Amino acid sequence: MKRLLFLTIATIFLASCATYEAPTLSTSETLDFTHSKVAAEEYWIPAKLVTPKYPVSIAKDKVAGCSRFKISINSDGKTVNAELIEAYPTDAFIAPSVAAVKKWVWKPTSKNEERVEITRMVQLDFYIPDAKNYAQAKGYCAVGTQF
User: What number of other Cβ atoms are within 10 A of residue 112's Cβ?
Assistant: First the structure.
């Protein structure tokens, strides 16, 4: 499976499942938390999130939207293997995401002293106050409990 390295943050919105028990794995394995923000945040928290630039052409057209990604955080706290799941309403938000995500740094929590690698989902929202599709974007980009 080809994996791409990109991500963005205008605003990062994540939601979670109600309860999740982390599996017991050796430190050489990657934990999959694509269904639980709470579990992911028990291992890694943001140390540095770079905000991407809002695409000028999209801002001029007054368009809002979001992108969803499956990412991996390696033992060095870097975002790697980011894979676009979907973008709404256009792919124009992807390019600035690539530039931003390469600069993201994560900090292990006290529970993750072994710096176990994880996979998680993130959603990145792009909003401007007078977006012509603001209500539609908010409706489509409403975070579900899977993130």
Answer: 21
